[in-house]
Structures are given as C-alpha cells and as structure tokens.
Please model this.
Amino acid sequence: MIDHTHDAAASSWVEGADGHGDFPVQNLPLGIFSREGEMRRIGSAIGDYVADLAGLAEAGLLPHVLRPALAEQTLNALFRLDAVTRRTLRHALFALLTDPAQQGAVSPWLYPAQSVELHLPFAIGDYSDFYVGIHHATNIGKLFRPDNPLLPNYKHVPIGYHGRASSIRVSGAPVPRPKGQIKSPQADQPTYAPCRRLDYELELGIWIAGDHALGQTIPIGDAWDRIAGVSLLNDWSARDIQAWEYQPLGPFLSKSFLTTISPWVITAEALAPFRVAQPARPEGDPAPLPHLWDAQDQARGALSITLSVTLASAAMRESGMGPLELSRGTAQEAMYWTAGQIVTHHASNGCDLHTGDLLGTGTLSGPAPGSKGSLMEISQGGQHPVNLPTGEQRSFLEDGDELTLHARAMREGYRAIGFGPCRGVVQQAW
Ligand code: CA
Model:
C-alpha cells in the first residue's frame, strides 16, 4: 500500500536525512542497537542517526498498543503483530520525524549512528537458502555441464536447502577463513585444511512475519502478508569444500561456517513503491503450478532494487585506495521466482514458518557480464582473475579482503532508499 509516507517530497527536520543515500524519512528501517554498556533496544535509522523506538514509546510519543513489543530486545514480538498495527508504527514515526514541532521532544531519543552497535534484528529460528537467481544457476551449471546448465526441475520448483541459523552475523563481524575437507581433482585422498577457494554470494534475505501451524500452507495471494522485510545477505561459500562434500545431499559445511546480513530490516511497507512486475517467463518455459501462480504477485511481486558488490584488499586500504566495484545489477532481472513464490513454496508441504525465519534468495546475478554475484562466476572458476588497482589479482578471496554488498531500491517518482552495508573482512584460519 503506497501512502503519504512514500511521498518523494516529504522532508525530515533531522539534519542530513533528506539527502541521505540510504535512510531518508521514506525508509524508516527497523533494527536492534545498543549504546555502550546498555541493553539492546529497537531502533530505526534516519539519516546518520538511530531513533530509539523503545525510548519514544516510553515517552508516550508512539501508539500505546506498540509499547510492549517495542520494549523487547529483538523484532520478533513486533512482527508477530498484524500488518495494520505495524503500519501504525511507520505512520507515527513518520509524523514525529517530519513535524518540526516534534523536534524538541524527539531529539533526546536520536543517537549518532557511529555511537551505537548494531545487532541481529531477530532471534532467527530457521534459515533456508534458495537458488532463484537463474543467471547464477546457469553460470554455475555451465562450469559443470556446458550443454545443459539448468537441471529439469529448475523452472518448476524454487530450489532451496536448509541453512544454519546459529552462524548468522551482522555486517562488520569478522569472517574467519573456514577449514574443511578438501580433495583436489589430482589428489587421491582429501585433507583437512584452510579453504583456498573462499567466495561470497550476493543475496537478499527475506524475513518472515507472523506464524502458522504445522500442516497449514500460505496461499500465494497472502505471501506478502508474511514478509516482514528484506536485508542484504552474504552467503560466504567455500568452493573447494563444497565441490567435495555436495553430492548427493547438497552444500553443508561449505556454507554453514558464516552468513553475514545487513542489520536493518527494510520493511515490506517501505518497499511498497518498489514492487514491480515480474519479468515475463521466456517463450517456451513451463507455467508454474497453480499454487505458485498469482496474477497480483506477477504484477507486483518483483523488487526494483539495484545491487552492487565492492572489494578492498588490505593493501588497497593501506594505500588509501577506494574499493573496487566487482558487479552491479538488479534484483528483478536476477530472480526467476518472486519473493512471494519462495515463501509459498517453503510452506507448501505444510512446514510451519515463524516470525524471524530468514529465507535467502540465492545468488543474484544479472544477465550482463558486469552483474555476476560471486567470484566463482566472475573468475569463471578461477580461470580469469580480477585485476585490483594495486596490481594484485583475485580469483577467490584472500585474508584481509573487505567485501561489501550494497542495495538501493529505486523507482522513478519515488525517493530512493538504501539498505546500509553488508560487510565482512576475511581473517586467516585459526
Ligand atoms: Ca547461496
């Protein structure tokens, strides 16, 4: 639902918010922060500040009905509330931050963003990862099966697997290089050693709102009612461990060592103007089964989000160089299945989904050469390394590399909103 909170002309009295690349007043993402020595609290990003929503609620400046959920240390209770109640939070916060008469009352609850620490937004019960980026699936498939890159199920089933929730961390957390079983094609036996082909995967993470019981499903027409919002997700991947372990049950330790997310939840309400038509399936592709097909979802189920990835090696940072952009593309060009289809498919066997569950989209590579969402694709399995401005080369990530995912929702007539960075620096193995 698009309303006055999406008006491109809306202006905030918070210094710097109107021109802010990520967090103008049209965004109002939700997350968890703490000030030094204090408990975790629910906040929202506005410009270069974090608004303390628990504090604003305690001061009686936000709807009374939200007060218990806003006093929690995760977003789970808030996103168990119905969508109408949740929208009252967005409307009330928007009113506080746009009305100059509220500046005196609200300002004590704004903290400089650099002065707070950000945390996981939800207590994450379960994490699953999909594979809906069709160009990524094709690029990877070609490395193994040049003539037949996509398997026959791909256009019928949103392919996914169950990931690991315990090792999800927010942007900025160090990324220790994993160790694992590696068997090079030339070797007779595997060894247990530090990963030598460490990669990233550019993904969006879909957060689930609300709960349903085992044995129930989510009709495709209701799927967006169950989407709390979206963050960036880096599914760090150990390609050499993956190549040895993945058959026949799929990736396991090559993925579960760490997943990084951006800490702010860009809410479904904030994303409303950026929901666009899903690109038509190419001529000859099968139609999805009826339980995965909805005309409204096709009309408004894709996301107009530009995604990019940057890399800065330790040597680049030491010489004061800016990061190198590795790729730039869009979510709507990359995703063969919509976020709604992902959610509906996940529950279509009767599996219960709960508030704070996280569903990764899979690597979002576009059709253009400069829009590939992993080094495995960019370097074509290590055959074509990337040249860095220092003269260094990268087929895969080295210790000290800082890898950052970026996202901006953009559409003509609306103020662009950003996700904030999803960053990690690779550390040497223990
Ligand atoms: Ca993945």
Notes: The longest helix spans residues 83-98. The radius of gyration is 22 Å. The chain has a mean pLDDT of 97.
